Amino acid sequence: MFTAPLLKRAPFVQGFAFHRIVLESERAAFEKARNKEFPGFRILQIQGGIESVADSRAFYRVIDFIEPLDVMASAIGHDAHVLGSTFTVAAFNAQTTGQPQATPLLTLPYIKQSGFLIFLPLYRAAPPGTAVADKKHYGFAVAIFAVAESISKSLASSGVATHLNLKLYGKDAKGWVEAYATRQPTVERHAPLPVVGHLYDMTDLQYAKDFNLLNTPWQLRLSMPRPPPLKEHIASLLTLLIGLIVTAGFSIYTFAALSSSRRIRNLVDQRTSELNSANALLKHDVATREAHNRILHMIASGAPLSDILDGILLFSERAFSQGSCLVILADGSVRGPRVPADFLAAVSARSAQLSAMLHAEQSWVSAMSAPHARAAHAGQAEMSWRGLQFPVGIRSMASWPMLGKSGDWLGSLMMLSRDVLSVSHESRKAMRTSTDLAGILIESRRAEEYAHHLAHHDELTGLPNRLMFSQLLHMALGRAQRNGKSLAVLFLDLDRFKHVNDSFGHNAGDQLLRSITMSFRSCLRDPDTVARIGGDEFILMLEDYADLRHVGEIAERLVHEASKPVEIAGQQCHVGVSIGIATYPADGDDVDTLLKNADSAMYRAKSIGRGNYQFYSPEMNTHTLNRLALESGLRRALDQHEIVVHYQPKISVSSGRIVGLEALVRWQHREQGLILPNEFIPFAEEIGLISTIGMRVLRSACIDMARLREVGIDYGRVAINLSGVQFTDRHLVDEVRDVIAAAGIQARELEFEVTESMVMQDRDRAIELMHGIRNLGITLAIDDFGTGYSSLASLKRFPVNSLKIDRSFIVDIDADANGVGIVHAIIAMAHTLDLKVIAEGVESVAQLDVLRRFGCDEYQGFYFSEALSATDLIALMTRQRELTL
Question: What is the pTM of this model?
Answer without folding.
Answer: 0.42
